[in-house]
Amino acid sequence: MLSQPVPRLRVLLLEDDPRDADLVTHALERLELRCTVLRVDSRQAFASALDTFTPDVVLSDHAIADFNALDALRLTQARLPEAPFLLVAGAFEQSTTECLRSGATDFIRKSDLNRLAPAIVMAVKLRESLRRLSRRQRQVLQMLAVGCSTREIARRLRLSVKTVETHRAQVMHRTGIHDLAGLVRYAVRVGIVSAGQGSDRELPGSLAFDSGAS
User: Fold this and answer.
1) In this predicted structure, what is the pLDDT of residue 32?
2) Which of 48, 103, 142, 148 could form a disulfide with 191 if both were Cys (CB 3.0 to 4.6 A apart)?
């Protein structure tokens, strides 16, 4: 049982085995996590659900027929970076390590589903500050975290330096983190950049260089 109530959550479950999906859903109900679970079992359905269901959290098995967890993680980071991504699978595989390094929040064994609800609550609470950021502010945070300078961010996002500085100040205000090192650590913890990503300034998939928003 959870010690503190949380708002009803939308949970997107990527799982092609209905029996395993039922196990996950029943575990969440048993632990009194208030949620609506949507199960999908294809790449197309998953991508559509990110846009229409807009989940608060994503759960994924290692792979389904045409889609694996790493691809699902990258798609989630690109379209809904504020949603934590948790692996829920029968065994820890080599691909699990790659997903965790790439930004997945946690790994839960299907034989230990008592851990699932507390892990979801912790992940959602960790991202409260991230959800307060606008899309542009999240882009600035991501680019700061991979080592881009203010001028480089301005060039890549086609903004003025002053506008980038304003977004950076808002990011610090809304997250309550007032130093660059702290912002980098936070970006890694919430999975919008991966550990070590800043070494080559490889930009996350969720960075879109459009000029539609300032």
Assistant:
1) 82
2) 103
Burial 67-90 (b: 16+ CB within 10 A, else e): bbbbebbbbbbeebbbbbbbbbbe
| Counted domains in the chain | 2
120 and 150 fall within a common domain = no
- Looking at residue 81, its amino acid is P
Please tell me the predicted confidence (pLDDT) of residue 54.
95
Long-range CB contacts (< 8 A, 24+ apart) of 29-35? 31/1, 31/2, 31/114, 31/116, 31/117, 31/118, 32/1, 32/2, 32/117, 33/2, 33/6, 33/9, 33/117, 33/120, 33/121, 34/5, 34/6, 34/7, 34/8, 34/9, 35/8, 35/9, 35/10, 35/11
Q: Is residue 2 part of a domain?
A: no
87 phi, psi to nearest 5 deg: -85, 130
Both tokens assigned to 190: 């919430």
Structure tokens at 26: 């029943």
Instruction: Give pLDDT, residue 6.
Output: 59
Q: What is the DSSP letter of 199?
A: G
63-64 and 67-68 as β-strands: parallel, antiparallel, unpaired?
Answer: antiparallel
Same domain for 152 and 71, yes or no, is no
Q: Which residues of the chain have pLDDT under 50?
A: 1, 198-201, 204-211
Q: Which domain holds residue 67?
A: 9-126
Q: What pLDDT score was predicted for residue 200?
A: 45
